[in-house]
TrEMBL record:
Full protein name: Retrotransposon Copia-like N-terminal domain-containing protein
One Pfam family of this chain: Retrotran_gag_2
Domain of life assignment: Eukaryota
Region feature (Disordered): 165-184
Length: 218
């Protein structure tokens, strides 16, 4: 028997994303997550074949049981403070969507605010900070294109970092293959990947790989 996924009870918008993903893992593990998207089986036909009617009735009973189990899991993972607001929903899908209407609507706003407040920290791993920026961008309702994202990251890199692109010394651009794409945009689009590639090379300070000179502890 598999170990049940431990889910911290949801008590507000702050922990919603982790709660949502943990709940989906639990519901898939229990084999009942399908009721969140699938409609219940149709009732048996009045003049149908006996075997078909019995199969349809069995399928409906199974769906009803799985829906009750799924609903129970969702409600059990809500804090005492918000539990009364959702217990009135009679199906798992209704309860799930009601919680999402309350908390999912704020997720993209939080991500947008965090993205535009983003700063790079000299003491933190560079790749982690890039991944964080990309995740925040993906969570926003209106995401930046690869080019705009890379350009934004270029602008907020600390001036002291050697990997910060210099406007005075623009690197050679990759040949343009798309109509209307300026040569400089190739640098911006490839910038996060260029940083990742540079991290595979040795640090000039200590000779070790997987970090940049501005993060060197040697």
């Amino acid at each position: 028997m598999g170990t049940a996924t431990v889910v911290k009870p949801l008590d507000g918008a702050k922990g919603y994303l982790r709660w949502k993903e943990s709940m989906l893992l639990r519901l898939h593990t229990a084999g009942v997550a399908y009721v969140l998207s699938d409609d219940p089986p149709p009732p048996p036909a009045a003049a149908g074949v006996k075997e078909d009617c019995e199969a349809a009735a069995t399928a409906r009973r199974k769906w009803a049981r799985d829906d009750a189990v799924c609903r129970g899991h969702i409600l059990a993972a809500l804090s005492d403070r918000i539990f009364p607001d959702y217990v009135r929903h009679g199906t798992a899908r209704a309860a799930w969507e009601a919680v999402a209407r309350t908390y999912d609507v704020h997720a993209y706003r939080v991500a947008r605010r965090m993205f535009y407040d983003l700063t790079f920290d000299d003491g933190a791993p560079l790749l982690e900070q890039i991944a964080h920026a990309e995740a925040l961008n993906a969570a926003m309702r209106f995401t930046l294109s690869d080019g705009d994202l890379a350009d934004t990251l270029c602008q907020i890199l600390p001036q002291t970092w050697p990997c910060r692109p210099s406007r005075a010394r623009e690197p050679a651009a990759r040949p343009c293959t798309t109509s209307g794409t300026s040569p400089g945009s190739w640098r911006r689009i490839a910038f996060p990947e260029k940083i990742r590639s540079s991290m595979a090379s040795e640090c000039r300070g200590c000779g070790e790989p997987r970090h940049h000179g501005c993060n060197c502890m040697g």
